[in-house]
């Protein structure tokens, strides 16, 4: 059970692929959010149950009906939100595996009868892998992400890539405006990249914040930017990210989607610890002011605070300078 969000579902895919590789005959049912399902819907040998949280109690009733008369060997409770905890009660499972005591929140521990092993300072993806460990699934030397897309979406992305040539993606919008970098600074980086004869494209979802952020960047940019914001399905976006040479993004879903297809990511962080939520394969490439922000606010290093604690404030991302990002980007311009 992992309902949301896109980035976390990307992390969960690696764990699911691990189970499928080691135990190919395992029957897997995934309870997942409505939007997130669109990303993973073509994964083979998985039965998906869509949980539309906007439907409230009706969503729980739908889930109850979908699993009626079934008894699962194990339920992996990979979401600590109270809504997910309460919904999980309608699922009958011999083992109800939840997070360890330290990572349990919102009464999560009440709904589990087994917990994963305790782990200190774990990335979210590693935390999900703890569930496979709890099941006894053999470990893997190399992570695998297999998110199938249609041939039509692959062809569409190849055609776009052929038109664009060498390109870098800026996916500028997180779920909350305070986690976004300044549009004029994104624009400055985009101009720098295009001066190196590399194209820049903007990507994002159909939401208002994504649209406004993309428009603001284009307004400040001195060069013309290709804009795919709100114009792609999740699968088309995934393939656009795959053909890119680099992705620049804050703490947002496309950063983790890029990781699943092997494209390097420069992540921009101020509110959350990138060691916990950063692009898994590129933690050395993040530009982060989180450490200084959290120490100023709490009076101590993040190492002495509860894991995952967030820094608060609407202007923290302003501390990330153009030069810091340009320095990281320059390493990919050679």
TrEMBL record:
GO terms for cellular component: cytosol. It holds the Pfam family Glyco_transf_9. Keywords: Glycosyltransferase, Transferase. The keyword Transferase applies. GO terms for molecular function: ADP-heptose-lipopolysaccharide heptosyltransferase activity. It comes from the Bacteria. Gene3D superfamilies: Glycogen Phosphorylase B. GO terms for biological process: lipopolysaccharide core region biosynthetic process. The keyword ATP-binding does not apply. Belongs to the glycosyltransferase 9 family. PANTHER family: LIPOPOLYSACCHARIDE CORE HEPTOSYLTRANSFERASE OPSX (PTHR30160:SF21), TETRAACYLDISACCHARIDE 4'-KINASE-RELATED (PTHR30160). This is ADP-heptose--LPS heptosyltransferase I. It comes from Alteromonas hispanica. The lineage of its organism: Bacteria, Pseudomonadati, Pseudomonadota, Gammaproteobacteria, Alteromonadales.
């Amino acid at each position: 059970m992992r309902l949301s969000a896109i980035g976390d579902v990307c992390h969960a895919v690696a764990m699911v692929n691990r189970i499928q590789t080691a135990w190919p005959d395992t029957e897997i049912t995934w309870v997942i959010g409505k939007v997130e399902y669109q990303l993973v819907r073509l994964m083979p040998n998985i039965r998906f149950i869509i949980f539309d949280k906007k439907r409230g109690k009706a969503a729980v009733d739908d889930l109850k009906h979908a699993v009626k008369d079934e008894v699962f060997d194990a339920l992996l409770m990979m979401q600590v939100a109270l809504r997910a905890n309460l919904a999980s009660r309608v699922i009958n499972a011999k083992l109800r595996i939840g997070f360890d005591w330290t990572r349990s929140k919102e009464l999560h521990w009440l709904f589990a009868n087994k917990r994963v092993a305790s782990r200190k300072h774990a990335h979210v993806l590693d935390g999900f892998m703890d569930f496979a460990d709890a099941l006894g699934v053999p470990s893997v030397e190399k992570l695998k992400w297999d998110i199938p897309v249609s041939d039509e979406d692959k062809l569409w992305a190849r055609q776009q890539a052929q038109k664009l040539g060498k390109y870098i993606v800026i996916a500028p919008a997180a779920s909350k405006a305070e986690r976004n970098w300044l549009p004029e600074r994104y624009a400055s980086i985009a101009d720098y990249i295009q001066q190196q004869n590399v194209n820049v494209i903007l990507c994002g979802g159909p939401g208002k914040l994504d649209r406004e952020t993309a428009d603001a960047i284009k307004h400040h940019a001195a060069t013309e930017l290709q804009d795919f914001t709100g114009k792609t399905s999740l699968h088309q976006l995934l393939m656009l990210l795959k053909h890119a040479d680099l992705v620049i993004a804050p703490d947002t879903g496309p950063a983790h989607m890029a990781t699943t297809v092997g494209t390097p990511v420069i992540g921009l962080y101020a509110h959350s610890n990138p060691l916990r939520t950063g692009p898994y394969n590129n933690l050395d490439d993040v530009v982060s002011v989180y450490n200084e922000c959290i120490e100023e606010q709490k009076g101590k290093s993040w190492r002495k605070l509860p894991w995952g604690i967030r820094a608060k404030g609407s202007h923290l991302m302003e501390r990330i300078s153009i030069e810091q990002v340009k320095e990281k980007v320059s390493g990919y311009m050679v």
